Amino acid sequence: MTQQFATEDFSTWSKGVLQHVEVTLDRLLPAAAVAGAGGTLNEAMRYAMLGGGKRIRPLLAVAAAELAGGTHESREVSELTMRAAVAVEMIHAYSLAHDDMPCMDNDALRRGKPTVHVRYGEATALLAGDALQAEAFSVLAEAAPTADAPERAASVVYMLRVLARASGAHGMCGGQAIDLASVGRSLGQESLEQMHRMKTGALLHAAVLLGAASAKIPDATVEAALLRYSRAIGLAFQVVDDVLDATADTATLGKTAGKDQADGKPTFVSMLGLDASRRFALELREQAHAALVPYGVGALRLRELADLIVVRGA
Amino acid sequence: MTQQFATEDFSTWSKGVLQHVEVTLDRLLPAAAVAGAGGTLNEAMRYAMLGGGKRIRPLLAVAAAELAGGTHESREVSELTMRAAVAVEMIHAYSLAHDDMPCMDNDALRRGKPTVHVRYGEATALLAGDALQAEAFSVLAEAAPTADAPERAASVVYMLRVLARASGAHGMCGGQAIDLASVGRSLGQESLEQMHRMKTGALLHAAVLLGAASAKIPDATVEAALLRYSRAIGLAFQVVDDVLDATADTATLGKTAGKDQADGKPTFVSMLGLDASRRFALELREQAHAALVPYGVGALRLRELADLIVVRGA
Fold first, then answer.
1. pLDDT (tens digit, 9 = 90+) per residue, B241-298?
2. Residues A86, A24: contact at Cβ < 8 Å?
């Protein structure tokens, strides 16, 4: 059984996890079948969450739980790990719904479908995003009957702390603010990396930490390794996004192509050129792998996810 | 000392608490003096939070901590209680910043000052609200070095659970969605009460529960009493708001008067008339007092806050 798990190929593993994620989301999101205005809000929340996306954050969370758990004796992914996975994805989805709004990026298309405000109106998109953020913290805080499991309460607090920090002014929202202010200005590579580290990287890092903590609160050594890994894949993710934005068409991307350039936003491609950007992504993959060396087979899925992130833009 | 505390008058008590709240907010909000775009975001968050408001939710939280703590031996308000107080106020402030935006209520004036989007632009107002919501969960999750204080972790998880539930689709955001959908339609009194119970009441209830839990996780009996109390003051709060909206002028209110009526929103005044609305508010105050009877002197401040809520519209 152990053997079988370790050798299950990535595609089978990720398909299984993604199925589990969809089922968990469906179970934890407010029911869409409520009558009246509440029903519309819930429907918009589900629209923002479901129907696609790469679900890279949930995959990272589950992979990190494997590393932290240190064993593959059970193929069962724990309820707390699944809650970590969907909580991070809820934060991600709310941020997309808000970023797409007219006062921000004004994007009409996301994953090949109308964005939330196009489909449900701006007010409902705003509210659905707000409610999804609350829901993200809720699915974690509701995880534990904590009175009789004090250890679990400590894990849940750790997870909530990491998620809140990564989402707010010191993380995703702060990065978004820098992004807004940078339109039409030329940022240096260092500032650009800092912006992405907050805007995208913080939440990818949170996915890894939450997943790990759902199995076992990481000690300082594991935290340091996961930080190195997360920084590398976070940056790689953005470099590859920029490469795709410059080379793929709208149909392939499922969102408006060439938009960053048209908006005068600085990108790695505009700064380094296409070839050097691709080389940079491969170098970052090596950094991610290097961080995982001490963790052997437990780090298999995290290694494969670093490959996935880089290969989609190769 | 005990004697002195119990007889300190309400105005002295509330002034002391409010001062403590402002200091705590200033300490816990991200620094405004950061250079660049992050600085603008942080400044907008502070603008949304500081400079006024009645701070009724922080007062409720501190008052409920007194009830749950059951003693007045120390005049010290604990750090966890203050974090409860400001966390709830952050959720409240973020919801105002978003509600005021053009796609929602489109209000230019709040507490006599330009609303956040008027002052900082829509994109920053949206982000500042998002970041404040994250910050609310952060100040709670960061409260406890939980590893060596498992009991405290349980309290923090309880508080986070209550706050997340009250903020999301089953609480404030859900109520807001019903409110949006009700413009120009005639709601019955029951639907109107349900809407307000979610939109405003859920967060007032959360303030009371969080404050209580910061002293001691409430048992089922205390929870039931606090729910009765919260429902009564929550509804009274809204009835009084409607009375003020119909009778006071813009300068007195610090926000645009008569707006609900102009927007075709159903109000208690439009439904019951002015006199019956005032009588209803007084009746709700009696209900709030009745819920507190078993708690004697420990409930003093909660009783006085019920009075305050009703008297401002008498």
1. 999 988 877 666 666 666 666 667 778 898 899 999 999 999 999 999 999 999 999 9
2. yes
Strand ranges (DSSP E) for chain A? Answer: 109-110, 113-114
Q: State the Cα–Cα distance between residues A80 and A88, nearest whole angstrom.
A: 12
Whether residue B42 contacts residue B30, with contact meaning beta carbons closer than 8 Å, is answered with yes
Pinpoint the alpha helices (H) of B183-265.
189-196, 202-215, 220-247, 250-253, 259-262
With an 8 Å Cβ cutoff, is B118 touching chain A?
A: no
Q: How far away is chain A from the Cα of B171, in angstroms, using its nearest Cα?
A: 9
Q: What percent of chain A has pLDDT over 70?
A: 86
Per-window interface: A 145-184 vs B, CB < 8 A: 146-147, 150-151, 153-154, 156-158, 160-161, 163-165, 167-171, 173-174, 176-182
Contact at CB, A150 and B147, closer than 8 angstroms? no
Q: What is the pLDDT of residues A281-314, one digit of tens each?
A: 999 999 999 999 999 999 999 999 999 999 875 4
Other Cβ atoms within 10 Å of A304 Cβ, number? 18
pLDDT for A153 equals 86
Residue B3 has pLDDT above 50, yes or no: no
- Spatial distance between the Cα atoms of A214 and B234, rounded to a whole number of angstroms: 37
Contact present, A214 and A155 (Cβ < 8 Å): yes
Structure tokens at A249: 């068409």
Architecture of domain B2-311: Orthogonal Bundle (1.10)
Q: Which residues of chain A have a CB within 8 Å of the CB of B122?
A: 103
In three-state secondary structure terms, A163 is helix
Is residue A66 classed as helix, strand or coil in its secondary structure? helix
